[in-house]
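Chapter review. Work through the record for AP complex subunit beta before attempting the end-of-chapter questions.
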Amino acid sequence: MASTGQDSKLFVRNKLADLRAELQGDKKDKDFKKRKVVLKRVVASMTMGQDMSPLYPEVIACLSIEMLDIKKMVYLYLINYARVRPEMVKHAMPGLLADAGDRNALIRALAIRTMSYLAVSEVLKALVDPLHACLRDRDPYVRKTAAICVAKLYMHDRRLVDKEGFVNQVKDLLGDPNPTVVANAVAALTEISERSETIHLRLNTTVASRLVSAMGECSEWGQTYILEALMYYVPEEHADAELLAERIAIRLQHSNSAVVLTTVKVILYLMNYMGSREVVDSMCRKLSPPLVTLLSSGYEVQYVALRNIHLIIQRRPSVLKSDVRVFFCKYNDPIYVKLAKLEIIYRLANENNVEQVLAELKEYASEVDVEFVRKAVRSIGRLAIKIASAADLCITALLALVKTKVNYVVQEAIVVIKDIFRRYPNQYEGIIGTLCENLDALDTPDAKAAMIWILGEYADRIENSDELLDDFLFSFAEEPVEVQLALLTATVKLFIKRPTAGQELVPKVLKWATEDVDNPDLRDRGFIYWRLLSTNPGAASEIVFAEKPEISTESEAMDRGVLDRLLMHTGTLASLYMKEPQTFVRGARAKYLQDSPALDPLAKQSQLDSIPVVRAPTATSSGSGSRPVAAPPTSDSAPPALSPRSTRKESTADELPMHQGEVLLGDDDSEDEDVALNPASNGGATSSKTTTTFATYNNNGTAALPSPLPIDENLDPYASLARMSFEQSAHGGVSAFSQYGYEADQPRRAGVHDQDLL
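Structure tokens for AP complex subunit beta:
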């Protein structure tokens, strides 16, 4: 404690002249105590942002002092200023090379570690020979440091590492008798594999078994490195995966949360290669206690654990299925922990525990935190949709909350009651009267839109529905678009169900929507309703009141393939964001379950469905074009990472029939036309409901023209109208939509067939 107090006094601004004088003087300081204090002041000033680079001649001269503490500070100085003052590194090279061959193992390791930090070409070339020697050093501390240095050197100069064969030397360290050296070698190879396009780490059963055996003598971080490397092991048989999972399951009892979460990740990964359902269920039961134990850690660790548990229970519902009480919120939990727990409580709710969960949610609805209360009320409504047998209990609870007259509680309750009405039509209309008594409490757009939807949907059962809608219409111009759209649709529904009551409101609302607003969505919907009501009211009734699909909770679940890939990043930022790392980390690569005879067929299919589509060139009649070809993953490397929304289904504008003498648009042109016809596709947003073309070959081995699958496009209305207009124009006809005023000016041909524009 005393030294800490003395060191804190060093963090003051120092004059360069004073420091230089002290470094040059003190010749009588034989034990170098004063020199050591001066260097501490230099490092402290450097830490505070003061430029200490002019002192480099005096600081580098201290390298000749045979004291480890002084060398550490000089090396720290070099690392900090090497980029801005590369000339100082050249002066330090003799001292660095001398230290790399020092008799003291700590100094040897410190020297090569410092050289690996210096991204200067002269230093990297000079590092080659000492690094070769240190990888074969007799001292394990030097070997483990050298293994990490190879990974750092690979970041600076990949060609040099490949040329000198450092990767093979690190690979040989996997058989080192020292477990710490093995752990560092694994960490280095993993880092290189993730950064390299040509080097891919793949462990066989023998190496994986050896790594597991070495874990027992490693530090907690060494165990984490080895467990991460086991993600590169692909079992060829079910028994291999089951045996490895059993051997590492003991790490679930470790005190370090990183070791526990990494072990959970490896076991979840190996479950995809297990053939016995009983073994999978047994492993799921083993995962529950360590995950519950993590909830007794600090709030930050709790949050990380909760976000990972949220993913795990979606993919493996049997994990924690009987432990919902563990996730009940405590009064002193921070809001981010409470919200994470609330989502897990909803996920774990079932018919057996719904009453217990509902009672807990009702307690949460009386809390003081507004955001938490809103989420709790919304969870009650989601429970009613998820569990049909609990709908009556949930409605009763929501009505009790509405009667509290608390504004934000009433608003959230009305929003979820609207969804319950859609899920269970004609069952709970008796509560509409209670809802109508609380219209004054509505001041958020989603609550207003929900209540307006209820008024329009049940306009024939609410006597004064026209008056209530008229009250909302007073502020039509000031309302957000969400509320304006709801008012427009509700007014049309009122007119269809009660023409007399709605005949005054409809013309007024349609006029506002088509003439007085600037939003194109609202204006287009107004025109559609106007033409429907004026030309064929019967068709309008069939369209507006068409049977709608029931709301379900299935849409909330993530795709199985996405879950499998996210669970391969358990314990990382990807699991917190619930996004694959390549979507927010530059240079990150997607991870896929590698194919194997032991891989679960459903997991294999989900991976195949998510394989990106790459373009392979094929010959055309007058040049070279490109067509999408599915790229299956190999056992050695993951598929190329494209846009996260790219799928095996891809729009193929160049699949239209070709005519003699015509050339289809190239990639750039077709992309521009797609953006022009479908603005939603701009910015990389690709439709997921389009088709793909698979390359086919004739008997003679030549590429045959592919046959497109049935087109199922998800374009906006303007794209469809534009397509119809072009098709009519191509045949010399008139667009069927010209009478409605939707036809735009036809583009000039300019030597390109009209169909090529689509």
